[in-house]
C-alpha cells in the first residue's frame, strides 16, 4: 500500500552541501515529498526524538550532533515507503552501506551518517507529527 515515512538530512550532510543531491536521490527513487523544511532541533527536541536511545552510550554524542546545525525534515510518500526508504539510505554504518545508497555516498561515520529514516509505520507517523503540523502535510 502507499504509505509515508519520515526523514531528516542530518547536520553533517547539510554542512557538507548535500541537501540538493540527497533530495534528488530521494525523488529519483520514486518518493513524493509531502512535507519539507529546513529547521534546527533544540537539545530538548533531540532528547525527545531519540528518547528510545536514552540508555545507549552514544546518546549524549547523538543529541550534540543532531543539534549542532540545521537539518532538513521531510515526510515522504511511496508504495512501501518505510522499507524502501531504509533500503535507499543503506546501513547505519557507512562502511557497511551498499553501493548506490545515500549513506554510501554521503555518510562520514556511524554517528554522522547523513540521513534518518523511520523504522516502522507507527514511528513514521509519530516522527512526522513531531515536526509538521497538519496544514504542512500535503
Ligand atoms: P539513526 O539510525 O538514524 O538513529 C539513531 C542514531 O544513533 C543513528 O542513526 C546514528 O546517528 C547514531 N548511532 C547509532 N549507533 C551509534 C554509535 N555506535 N555511535 C555513535 N552514534 C551512533
Automatic annotation (TrEMBL):
Domain Nucleoside diphosphate kinase-like: 2-136
GO cellular component: cytoplasm
Keywords recorded for this protein, A-Z: ATP-binding, Cytoplasm, Kinase, Magnesium, Metal-binding, Nucleotide metabolism, Nucleotide-binding, Phosphoprotein, Transferase
Reported cofactor(s): Mg(2+)
Coiled coil: none
Pfam families the record matches: NDK
Catalytic activity: a ribonucleoside 5'-diphosphate + ATP = a ribonucleoside 5'-triphosphate + ADP; a 2'-deoxyribonucleoside 5'-diphosphate + ATP = a 2'-deoxyribonucleoside 5'-triphosphate + ADP
Active site (UniProt): 116 (pros-phosphohistidine intermediate)
Record-listed E.C. numbers: 2.7.4.6
GO biological process: CTP biosynthetic process; GTP biosynthetic process; UTP biosynthetic process
EC class name: transferase
SUPFAM superfamilies, per the entry: Nucleoside diphosphate kinase, NDK
PANTHER family xref list: NUCLEOSIDE DIPHOSPHATE KINASE, NUCLEOSIDE DIPHOSPHATE KINASE DDB_G0292928-RELATED
Task of the protein: Major role in the synthesis of nucleoside triphosphates other than ATP. The ATP gamma phosphate is transferred to the NDP beta phosphate via a ping-pong mechanism, using a phosphorylated active-site intermediate.
Family, as annotated: Belongs to the NDK family.
Protein name: Nucleoside diphosphate kinase
Organism: Flavobacterium soyangense
